[in-house]
């Protein structure tokens, strides 16, 4: 009943079909592209960095981990800044600063300088993912929020794919420096698109921020069981996803597949299934209920994971396709649900979700190699399946805890659409 009493006071916000809705979702799509092109383009040039700077593969990988690690550390401070200075102002400053740093990165004279610049780029990038979900939750009508969030997640999936492929294509005709430079210029172009399209915040109200205020806001969210469940879901889902993709290349390069490296690199095209599934899952969540779609997406990912077990290339590829689609569908639902449940201090709630998301990537992903070394691909599948079964159990509990209010909410979109 408590949730029902707040419904009449919620701002209407943009709804599907509105010009403002099309504008804000296009802007956030561009923001997702900007962030993930910048973040993951370096992954395609790691061997070239190792050769050019005479460093080990582990050291060259710092070009990626420095960015994601600093982004994770900066997410919560960036969300606090957005509470004080506004969503669009923080996002615009973040996107522009990171794009400028990205243009400078390729001309680093040493590996040490490159890693420092990539770390600074991660710090600058943090303002976009830390603020995007809160911005959408405030400006988009609750009944259209899932679809809007799905479009943002779609931008991140295409951005992650485009960053890797774009740099790979340039490497065929030029050096790693120009590969990163082209990716940086593309990121800058999407930043300009975002700056042009993003509508000003209509429902944002600035709040005083400080260390104690921010800590108090974070603790409020950490006391909410349903939000904790979503944070745990993000950690488990991303941890399993990164684990599978980190090891997949090793399996495809080895017997019985023995695929060439260039073909293995094309496996990232599977991200396109996530582009579609995130948008579809967002729309379904608005209509059928978030809990049901979250659990269904997790089940799809598990089914796909199981399909990768046979030593059949077709089974592996179809399995990876379903696994990727299920992951991004679940991520779109969970991330949008965070903004729906957090009635206040949404930026901090989104930041906690993303912090857990990237912790899952770094910690769970690091453990994947141990499972693979111990029992091969079967061991890796068992490890990831364990993470996803736990995420599924969390999803079922969350679905049950929200079932009564969900039925009330689900009855509304039909009336609005009619």
UniProtKB/TrEMBL annotation:
It comes from the Bacteria. Its main location: membrane. PROSITE patterns: MFS (PS50850). The chain crosses the membrane at residues 24-46, 58-78, 90-109, 149-170, 176-195, 227-247, 259-280, 351-374, 380-399. One of its GO terms (molecular function) is transmembrane transporter activity. GO terms for cellular component: plasma membrane. It is found in: Cell membrane. Keywords: Cell membrane, Membrane, Transmembrane, Transmembrane helix, Transport. Residues 20-404 form the Major facilitator superfamily (MFS) profile domain. Pfam families: MFS_1. It is a multi-pass membrane protein. The keyword Transferase does not apply. Belongs to the major facilitator superfamily. This is Membrane protein. It comes from Luteipulveratus mongoliensis.
